[in-house]
């Protein structure tokens, strides 16, 4: 039996050279739907929101809290809110957050955080940092799935328990989290244990090894504490001597389904990877890629196609270095389908420091791997407007006249870091007027030979000394009193704030 390699083995972060490109979040051709209101539940294979409307997770994994850093990675170089703004701006609607039980131990202190960039996280423990991330994510309309990724921070475990973290601790931490987030509709589900595998079995009846029975024990305990959560149950690696990816084999659910005390809460989950993780035999088959649909049907897709329960493809990723991986990802996305009726997914990963797959972010933790993102774009539904009708227009009417004298604005400009030959800067636009700004372009001029090399949270352009930043669909509306923060990297000497900024041709106070 071929055992797959670790699909997210961490390797030391190698900082990539800054790419001379502008970050422009891609928007698929079809309009994105909202992420859905309230808690979610199931009806056959369909996820529904609190109003009974079809919804679907089209999300991404942001890992790190399961490691010895005890916090999501990348906070050593960026502000967490800026990170979440970018995730939402790219069109993801769900965040899968891995954690370890060690995170909740009294001696587990978050580390690897630049508190200058993240002042609000200073002095917080691991759970409190998750609270801050979840609160801000919810304000953007994102939904969150918590993923028990590891017992201890050092490594994953095949079974759901270890000597140091027994089953009782696994369940008590889950019930603690269920109670802690009760009533918080941002957190919608519990991914019980990441990638069960041998000696774990499905349906064998051995209490010490039967993952299906363990999932029932934990799932029902969680629902006793918080009956609104989705219970997400991954597969194993092998069923009746038919091997597959760790956590990806759900064949046993046909004969031995998971039984929960609260109906309409069960979601099955699989993981699936490409050759950059392990060269499984089906990649070498002459029938590739036409053989893939049958493999997916057999292992997890049948649950969706037979209307048994929703399926979440909780992890899938690749470096795309091998042409077969490109074919695999294109074929997989088509198999998952478009719209709210498709199979849910959370891509692995946001982080660039996943050794076997890389991430959506490049090694600078800021710019986007646009090639990889382009495979996902047509299938992302977006978070929508968390404060209004999810079926409405979250950006207001962009066709109105934005250049009216009613606009009143303030701009804050700060150089965040600099080096020989370049710098990073952040620009905050505040609408100080009485009316919303629906659609905006900010213009200013550099004082010298500075040139923008990349930017984020806006579409950036430069003509000579003149620079323009135009809002994206997710931040193009600025309510009265609200602010939007954007940023850029530039070559040349770091300079003081430009003397003038215009918003839609109207001068702003600097």
Rg over CA atoms, rounded to whole Å, is 23 Å
Averaging pLDDT over every residue, what do you get?
88
Give a count of the beta strands, DSSP E runs of length 2 or more: 24
Main sheet strand line-up = 4-5-6-7-8-11-12-13
Give the termini distance in whole angstroms: 65 Å
Percentage of β-strand residues: 15-25%
Protein structure class? alpha/beta
Number of helices: 8
Largest sheet: 8 strands, parallel, barrel
How helical, in percent, are the residues? 10-25%
Low-confidence stretches: 1-34, 385-405
Question: Which word captures the global form?
Answer: globular
Name the features.
disordered N terminus, 23% strand, 510 residues, alpha/beta, five-stranded antiparallel sheet
